Amino acid sequence: MIGNILDVSAVTPVQDLVALARELGPIFQLDMMGKPITVVSGFALADELFDESRFDKSVRGALHRVRSISGDGLFTAYTKRTELVPSPHILLPNFGDRAMAGATIR
To answer: Are 8 and 16 in contact (CB under 8 A)?
Structure first.
């Protein structure tokens, strides 16, 4: 019933996921109280998943409902829209190499 919820601590979730990746491999699925969560680790697999030319963003469920109120936005715009829509690149200055160099992990 609780699935893998006890395998991932609220205090050290990243460390616990790294340990599970070492044990289970670079891609695995957890059952979090009936909700399946797919975990991918390693640069090669992440690089494949982040290849925007091969995947499409899905705007459904709660995002679809938000979109009906807010319209096109960073998370609510459809991928194939021809109008000018906000780009994920607007986040790059905040999460780029220079910005992250001064960041500390808590």
So the answer is: yes
* Contact call for residues 59 and 77 (beta carbons, < 8 A): yes
The C-alpha atoms of residue 69 and residue 93 are separated, in whole angstroms, by 28
What's the CA gap between 74 and 105, in Å, rounded?
26
Q: Where are the beta strands (DSSP E) in the chain?
A: 27-32, 35-40
Instruction: Tell me the whole-structure pTM to 2 decimals.
Output: 0.50
Question: Model confidence at 84, in pLDDT bands (50, 70, 90)?
Answer: very low
> Backbone phi, then psi, for 29, in 5-degree steps?
-120, 135
Average pLDDT, the chain: 78
Q: Write down the pLDDT at residue 26.
A: 92
- The answer to whether the beta carbons of residues 10 and 19 sit under 8 Å apart is no
